[in-house]
């Protein structure tokens, strides 16, 4: 089977990088842009300066600053239609993962003229998305370098993944100065999400030496900088490392894809409104232990990247155990929870979540429709690119272990 590595996004990084925003947009010969953000980010002084920069450059700026906690199909469809009607020729997203996913969805709908619901799955739209510039304001989702947009479909109570080579952002601007006012709790949650991207990419069955090199360095960089950016002095250099590690982790998982943590989290996010970062983060240590045991050559590398000093005679199982405990130690140090509350996922819903995970992460609307007619048993395997097959009953056990 051939392997493809594709990463066309230009990355501009460092303190002050945001000052290049207007010049970047002008580089697309754009005259009219849609600026996508949320009500909190759009109140920041640096955001207002970025807006002034665009207006001073002579650009017509159409604003959509009402993004919610998740990117929503109905908002994306409405704003995509608005972008078409107003002849918008580029989309700028300034915000966290949900804002960037919304901006990407708008750029897809704006170019293709059909509902995002009909574009979900892999490569289900024909025209290149409008040019996109992404400015992440959390170091977590990595959406700024990802072809994928993750959206909530309220009408069908589902979270859906949509993307393909035609929806890569054109430019990602990584300026650690915009992370300065990020609350530590959110910095921890998003930082853990980025860590899961690196870990899932490194352990994916589609991993290659190319993605392994990037994923492993992303894990190492993240593990060595998260404490310094969240606790104590909240160092700007550490925040710059978090941002870069977040993009690197997503470059790796964009090519090697994601595994069981994201697959199992998807029904939680769609049905019980579990925040993505909490879903994947709490699942990750369990999923890492589950998968690393079939990757004996990789387990020591993961442990070392997480900061463990391994002895040369350490067995793969010992390396796996040490890697998982190093990850848990990091969670403890940055204040990220190890469990979900009983209210967040009631035990009587665990079986339903395990069954709903069966179609996998990349199934889209069509895959969920097929799932409705499937007969699910304890031994049904969950669709995933992870190295070890996981059955519904094994998923049930992991969900149960995640509940406090
Ligand atoms: Fe994620």
Overview of the molecule:
- The chain is an alpha/beta fold and about 400 residues long.
- The chain folds into 2 domains: about 10-180, Rossmann fold (3-Layer(aba) Sandwich), CATH 3.40.50.1970; about 185-404, Dehydroquinate synthase-like, alpha domain.
- Helices cover about 45% and strands about 10% of the residues.
- It has 14 helices and 9 strands.
- The protein has helices spanning about 20-25, 45-55, 75-85, 95-110, 185-200, 210-230, 235-255, 260-270, 275-290, 300-305, 315-335, 350-355, 365-370, 390-400, and strands at about 10-15, 30-35, 60-65, 90-95, 120, 130-135, 150-155, 160-165, 170-175.
- A 6-stranded parallel β-sheet has the order 1-9-6-4-2-3, sandwiched between helices.
- Helix 5 runs antiparallel to helix 6, helix 5 packs parallel to helix 7 and helix 6 packs parallel to helix 11.
- The radius of gyration is 20 Å and the shape is globular.
- Bound molecules: fe (ii) ion (FE2).
Can you describe this structure in just a few lines?
This protein has 404 residues and is of the alpha/beta class.
SS-based structural class?
A: alpha/beta
Sequence stretches where pLDDT stays below 50 over 5 or more residues: none
Q: Main beta sheet, described?
A: 6 strands, parallel
What small molecules does this complex bind? fe (ii) ion
Using only C-alpha atoms, the radius of gyration works out to 20 Å
Distance between the termini: 42 Å
| Helix and strand sequence | EHEHEHEHEEEEEHHHHHHHHHH
Number of helices: 14
Any guess at the CATH architecture of the largest domain?
Answer: Up-down Bundle
Please give the domain count: 2
Strand content: 5-15%
**Name of the CATH superfamily of the largest domain:** Dehydroquinate synthase-like - alpha domain
């Amino acid at each position: 089977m051939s392997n493809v590595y594709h990463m066309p996004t230009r990355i501009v990084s460092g303190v002050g990088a945001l000052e290049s925003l207007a010049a970047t947009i002008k580089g697309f010969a754009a005259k009219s842009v849609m600026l996508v953000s949320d009500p909190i980010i759009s109140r920041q002084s640096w955001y207002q300066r970025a807006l002034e920069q665009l207006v001073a450059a002579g650009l017509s700026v159409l604003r959509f600053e009402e993004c919610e906690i998740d990117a929503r199909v109905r908002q994306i469809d409405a704003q995509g239609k608005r972008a078409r009607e107003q002849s918008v020729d580029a989309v700028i997203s300034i915000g966290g993962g949900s804002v960037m996913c919304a901006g990407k969805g708008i750029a897809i709908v704006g170019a293709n003229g059909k509902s995002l619901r009909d574009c979900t799955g892999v490569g289900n739209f024909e025209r290149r998305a409008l040019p996109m510039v992404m400015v992440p304001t959390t170091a977590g989702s990595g959406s700024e370098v990802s072809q994928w947009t993750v959206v909530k479909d309220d009408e069908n109570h589902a979270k859906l993944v949509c993307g393909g080579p035609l929806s890569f952002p054109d430019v990602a601007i990584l300026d650690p100065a915009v992370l300065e006012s990020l609350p530590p709790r959110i910095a921890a949650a998003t930082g853990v999400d980025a860590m899961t991207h690196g870990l899932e990419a490194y352990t994916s069955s589609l991993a290659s030496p190319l993605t392994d090199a990037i994923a492993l360095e992303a894990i190492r960089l993240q593990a060595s900088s998260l404490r310094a950016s969240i606790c104590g002095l909240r160092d700007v250099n550490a925040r710059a490392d978090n941002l870069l590690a977040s993009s690197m982790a997503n470059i790796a998982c964009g090519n090697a894809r994601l595994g069981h943590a994201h697959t199992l989290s998807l029904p939680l996010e769609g049905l019980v409104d579990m925040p993505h970062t909490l879903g994947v983060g709490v699942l990750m240590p369990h999923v890492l232990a589950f998968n690393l045991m079939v990757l004996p050559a990789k387990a020591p590398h993961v442990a070392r990247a997480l900061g463990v000093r391994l002895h040369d005679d350490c067995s793969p199982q010992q390396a796996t155990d040490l890697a998982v405990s190093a990850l848990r130690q990091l969670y403890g140090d940055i204040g990220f929870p190890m469990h979900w509350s009983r209210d967040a996922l009631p035990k009587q819903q665990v079986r339903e979540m395990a069954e709903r995970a069966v179609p996998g992460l990349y199934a889209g609307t069509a895959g969920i429709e097929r799932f409705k007619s499937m007969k699910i048993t304890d031994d049904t395997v969950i669709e995933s690119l992870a190295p070890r097959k996981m059955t519904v009953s094994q998923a049930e056990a992991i969900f149960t272990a995640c509940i406090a």
